[in-house]
Amino acid sequence: MQKIRLLTVLFLVNTIHLIYGQGLPREMYLSSDLRTLYTGGKAPNGVFEQGTIHQVNLVFPQANYWSLLLSNFNAKIDIPATMIIDGQTYDSVGVRFKGQTSYMGAQNSQKKSFNLTTNSFKKNQDIEGYTIFNINNCYQDESFMREYFFLDNIQTYIPAAKCSYIHLYLNGVNWGLYPMVQQINKPFLKERFMTNDGTNWRADKPPGGGGGGGGNWGDGTAALNYLGGDSALYKPHYTLKSTKSATPWADLINACSRLENTPIINLETMLPDSLDVDRSLWHVASEIIFGDDDSYVYKGKMDYFAYYEPETHRLTPLEYDGNSAMDPAHNTWSAFYNQSNANYPLMNRILQVPRLRQRYLAHVRTILTQAFDTATANAKINTIKSLIDSVVINDPKKLYSYAAFNNEIPVLKNFILSHKNNMMALAELNQQAPAISNVSFGTNGAQWSYPTGSDSVNILATVTSTNGIFAVRLFYATGIVGNFTATTMFDDGMHNDGASGDGVYGAYIPAKSSGSWVRYYIEAASNNTYKSVKFSPEGAEHDVYVYFVTPAISSDTSVVINELMAANATAVPDNFGEYDDWIELYNKSAIPVDLSGWVLTDDSLNLDKYAIPQGTILNPNSYITFWADEDASQGNNHCNFKLSSQGEDLILLNANHEIADRILFGVQQVDQGYARVPNGTGGFIFQQQTFGYSNNLFQAIEDNFSDKPEYISLFPNPSSSFVNIVTNADEGETVEIINAIGETVRSLSGNKNYSLDVSLMPQGIYSVRFGKAVSRLVVQH
């Protein structure tokens, strides 16, 4: 039992450390104590690293490149240039001018905004996985830092583009300072959602709405307004950017209909099936607090994206265009700005629901407390100014003077102070919510004890409040994404919560299946007029507590992962002649084992990845090989995943979903097997691969040349037509031809010499065996 517990702990620790590269998007990460899962707020690196100014030189081969860029603006046609960023060169990058307001506002200046597309002329070219970069000219932003500051802060709360600074040169000529902003496209989605397979729309102004100059804001067209059941009614107002769905518009229409047509009394329970309600509230709160002029909350029909997440069937708004944030004209916006306007349903509809309204205000308090802490915010502004000051003063193309740049710094600081004070003047917002601390999970009375699939989990939290406690609720969900279930927490002494009335609240999460992740968070409501709430973690639902339901460790160790090859360049071809990764299992017992329903996986977030086909029997002291090539079309023994030559995790689970074996391996050596030595029982070493037979190399030689004068000679070998097989088999002894997955494909008997036609046999490695004699045959076509 102690050994099983130790293996369980090791499994958990290794799993948590490995999920970064296997199942989680880049912007999701665990706390150092492994108990909190965060989404967003992670310091970017590479081309979007902050605290530095990246050097970018665009070299155009055309002498008239500027006139080409001007003439191509309306048609959005790229011209090629070589891009050199921080000393790295990328040729044939597509360049064009971008923007509407920023382009027209800078029509008498060369300080244009640029769109850079790395794969416009050269297929598959990217920079650190990114293919499109927006180089913005800071029109209407004398400070050069509104978009940079805004996007940096809201990363913690909502899916928003990354932003860094570049010093731009065109053909070696200084073009000055620019913020470089990430594109809202598939690489962006992949970093923030489980996949980027959903549908992404950009909300646009209606035709004739003005070339970036505004007009018709809040006209009820593209603010997730329900326009009817015909997709043609939506297409003038939304641009479909990417999708894998055959019916993408139906998903948008469904979300809009749910948002606008569901009775308010049912909205809290019905809307989450179609809209990520919590993300939407964080989105609205971020735009209002930062006074974002280019926003859903102000324009009500553009400057945001909407993403349909296929894993949850929910729509999520995405932030876009932040150069007009922190506009002093907007520092009087209240927390309920535009909430009374029916054309803004994310505010107008959702904030009519009392509990969702208080959830929203809790998020507003969190952002104001964290991002609008004046000491922290002012220090960040000062740091940014120090970073960019020398480049700004020497920027020959800047739209505004250096004096204007300096004068704008106190404008930003004053916006933060005055807008926070104006918002907190709202009585409903300026409330003292409860304090939540000491949140923990436990199993069977043991704190921080991870459950197995049969265990319910006890959640505890200490809650205090100066104005009484109305209710404490636990929200929990299985998996990394998806909606939560709410249940009441009690301070009654009956939920493993200590003494009744001691301020410790408890509740139970029902048992969940082995190998699953469980997310949870706490909501506590004050017993005041508004029932003001607080969350723990404060960033819920994108920041949540987590635990892992550990699979049981099988007591039967008969079948093991015996050998693998994750860098197969020329060593062993599969039945299609391809040199793919492979995994060998070995049955070291004396009885056959039915592998039906067993699972192989390299993803600890997905313990059902590749199910071994029904009817697969592994005989005693026998081997079976699976090709990890992500190509099921090539046969039953071809897995739906590949192995990484840089190392990863490989798990074998039995039909009861217990861990039968698990291997964590590091960087692999080309054409070398990674094998258990001694065979079936030992640790793993690199050696010459022993595909389909014992890993004990000396034993294999002894098996081939044992005291019994058994031998096999094959020639020619490799062969594509006929192979001569010479043996010393006695009369009646059988010579078997065995393929790469352990199946006997031919049986020969009665002769010592054979001529075997292999022209119709699939290409690959075969074992030729009789008695203890084994030889390998390579068929090549």
Structural account:
The chain has 781 residues and is of the alpha+beta class.
Give the topology.
Elements: H1 2-22, E1 28-30, E2 36-39, E3 53-59, H2 65-71, E4 79-85, E5 88-97, H3 101-105, E6 114-117, E7 132-135, H4 146-154, E8 163-170, E9 173-182, H5 186-192, E10 199-203, E11 238-242, H6 248-261, H7 264-270, H8 277-289, H9 296-299, E12 304-309, E13 314-319, H10 345-348, H11 354-370, H12 374-393, H13 402-424, E14 435-443, E15 446-447, E16 457-464, E17 469-478, E18 485-488, E19 504-509, E20 517-526, E21 533-536, E22 544-548, E23 559-565, E24 581-587, E25 593-594, E26 599-601, E27 610-611, E28 617-618, E29 622-628, E30 648-653, E31 659-665, E32 673-677, E33 683-687, H14 697-704, E34 712-715, E35 722-727, E36 734-738, E37 744-749, E38 753-757, E39 764-770, E40 773-779
Parallel strand pairs: 3-8
Antiparallel strand pairs: 1-2, 2-22, 3-4, 4-5, 5-6, 6-7, 7-9, 8-9, 10-11, 10-12, 12-13, 14-15, 14-16, 16-19, 17-18, 17-20, 20-21, 20-22, 23-24, 23-32, 24-29, 25-28, 26-27, 26-30, 30-31, 32-33, 34-35, 35-38, 36-37, 36-39, 39-40
Helix pairs in contact: 8-11, 12-13
